[in-house]
Amino acid sequence: MSRQSVELKTNDQIILMRDAGLATAAALREVRKAIRPGISTLELDAIAESTIIAKGGHSNFKLVAGYRHTICASINDEVVHGIPSADRILKAGDIVSIDCGAEIGEWNGDSAITVIVPNEDGSQVDSDLVRARQTLSDVTEQSLWAGIAALAKAEYLNEVGMAIEEYIYSQGRYGILEEYVGHGIGRSMHEDPAVYNFAVREKGFKVQPGLCVAIEPMVVAGSHRTKILKDGWTVSTKDASDASHWEHSIAVHDKGIWVLTAEDGGAAKLAPLGVKPVPLS
Length: 281
Known about the structure:
Strand order of the largest sheet: 8-7-9-14-15
Largest sheet: 5 strands, antiparallel
Oligomer: single chain
CATH topology: Creatine Amidinohydrolase
Distance between the termini: 31 Å
Number of strands: 15
């Protein structure tokens, strides 16, 4: 990856990116609060849309050619890019990943969470399945933070993927998607460089101030092999195993790192890993 293909941001630009990151975080926070049995993924989409607009931004997902929604909502064996629909009704015990992004000014934020739908309606649920799904989500989320912690100390970007892979495989027999990876972020939601969630032979881009990336491990309970459904968007596991997706946008600056899509900059989650994020004022 050449330096010329990666736009390094100034500290002032990173501060502007923070607005888009916080709008993205707010949208996901409100969607998380609304997740319950009986709600449709289209209703969740509307919540995210209204939250981003209230923050002075707009959906950057709608800027992707052919996509008309603010979030992607992927349920159970769907990994990423699930399209919101009035017909997609959440049930107790479902595992649902919500991916969302906001643009404010010319700057972008991108983040994703995974939630287990709570059993609020008294439905009969398989408790073992729910526990396995929660563990899958927890492993995926913690692998994200392991990758972010690695970024704080890395010389080269592909050290992030090594840390993510090492953590995931230390937790059990999980699969890591290979066709879909993280990316740079800034004036566009998707920029160079690629951010792998697994170890590769190349060192990758040199980590330096101004590097802004979205790290997003996508982990499955079975095989990593996937298929695209008939809608042309939704990515599902071929073996119907459950999936989880977590993501944050992170800036490297001249004083350290800052998680742009976390309200505390990542302080709470990074503290146990020995990393202290540094805000830019």
